[in-house]
């Protein structure tokens, strides 16, 4: 902090009026010079500080993953929007584990993180709306901004990410049943299978189908699959390439409407965000929010399209009407449980919010 120098004074007691006048002139001159230097130094320090904000990003996705591709483009947008006053740097390695990222950003161990709420069961109940099955009959490019719209209009008031600044949030592509044995064509075939669940809600779905839930982050899927710890997982097509399981899970059952999705968010430390100037905060949010959600959606849908073309060795079947009917009946308690949890967590009318989400998705599909 800049503080003015103490005024010690130069005048001494003297009976000489001429000497007294000289002392007063010298004192005034030095005081003016000191004030000028002080003002210039503080202005320079303030300017340097404003142009030297470096945000640290903790990434846990593979370097080549499209998530990092989108983030790199966003980082360039942030630098351009703030005229170079704010830059973002990748930390050399992930701070803690993927499931710890919310605490990492709230505690300031990193400034920017990507959080999957489903990795911490029970902590983000309101956001589990995006994880429910049988919601999505549209592609990821339209799902992602639709979920962001729902978040902004109906979920944000419940403050599920309290303590962090939400830069954007979206829902990933709907998942399918990917297994070693199979393809799965009935509820009976699911019984006893060990299925890795990508979220807390997915775990409830696995349980409802009579399978055994293995709740682990996606970073562990190759080891789980290759060692035989799990028989399958709920996956969209892109991750089968990204996480190197395409030669292990060679059977896919597609459930109309999806087995569920993962909610994902890009968060920033609240204190760091608040420390930026109002102009820079505004500039960052202008290149974030729905615009960033839309960019993620487009990239992830491209991953789906490319992966599907590359997965020629898969056996892919669509669930029969009978299988779908059995599944719908089995998961009714999962949706009802979410409504109760979301209400207890502060969402005013969860059933209405869910209906609005379905309407948003239907509108996105027809546009």
Automatic annotation (TrEMBL):
Domain of life: Bacteria
GO (cellular component) term, any one: periplasmic space
Main subcellular location: periplasm
Keyword Signal in record: yes
Alphabetically ordered keywords of this record: Periplasm, Signal
GO biological process: transmembrane transport
One Pfam family, short name: DctP
Record localization: Periplasm
Descriptive protein name: TRAP transporter substrate-binding protein
Organism lineage: Bacteria, Pseudomonadati, Pseudomonadota, Alphaproteobacteria, Rhodobacterales
